[in-house]
Amino acid sequence: MRSAYSRTGVQTTEELAGFPRMLDVLRGTFALRDGIAGKPCLDFGYYANVLDLGNNVGLAISTDGVGTKIMVAEAMRKYDTIGIDCIAMNVNDVICVGAEPIAMTDYVAVQDADPEMLSQLAVGLKRGAELAKISIPGGEIAQLRELVNGIDVVGTCVGLVAIDRIITGERVQAGDAVVGFASSGIHSNGLTLAREVLLGEQTSRLFAHVPELGRTLGEELLEPTRIYVDLAMRLIADTDVRAMMHITGDGFLNLSRLNAPIGFRIEQLPEAPAVFGMIAGAGKISAADMYLTYNMGIGFCAIVPEADVERALAIARECEIPAWRIGTCTDDPERIVDIVPARLRSLGGHLESY
Predict the structure, then answer these.
(1) pTM to 2 decimals?
(2) Of 214, 281, 186, 295, which Cα lies nearest the Cα of 251?
């Protein structure tokens, strides 16, 4: 059965038949840097790749965008937060390999180069850069009237990590703890589905105050994606952190990206923010589809030895990010993710109820 998200017209990775073929072709470029600086250390599919620059220096690199959250900004004529989202979506991936983000370039494609829109966008990019402690040394603005209807915002972020300190989860062991860190809300995934079920064709609903949210629906959907850079750098410095995962599309299935034959038993979760209940109710969306599409209140995870859980939680408090010990790693070569509170278990890239 197709997921609720795919029924909106968004194809999941497994439905994109051409995607593996594209990767096979591009993987052939790795050998072009054999014996010289810049050879990729990882295969495709992790949060970021790392280029070996020599002398144990690695350059982490990742590209991501804001997606259709921009359409909410367009409807509200409010562009001063989506720049934060662009920064967040990129730096939050780069830190997953243990790298410290240092810079991001942006690519902004527009139908019309509206000065006010671009000015607001720049404000958000600058604020995101401040939160992530990175520079924005360059970028591109492309006016594509025949191609773009509105605006699209994408970034490419780089960071530094010692080659022998790259984190991909290979040291994770059964019995290690999964610590979850709160999201700020919907972040930048699942907005196509959220807009379809909450708005339909009535964008005026964005301006309506929603009591259970304590603000307008538009303000809730535009809440910027939380940036976890400071948290991650402290975890790396002060704990034996063995893996970090940015929880985006596919939800907790992101845990199984790790380079280890490990499964995950998610044993307890905080109450999901109200916006997720609104989406599920309005669209009659199953728990499986919700947990496959959204972060459900947990935007980032770290795996640490049990002995480091309290320190990880203390670091989160210092960073003013709510955090919980949400689960345990299991010895499981099939890498099954079991979300006990929702009675869901991963099966072939999907979640099934039990």
Answers:
(1) 0.94
(2) 295
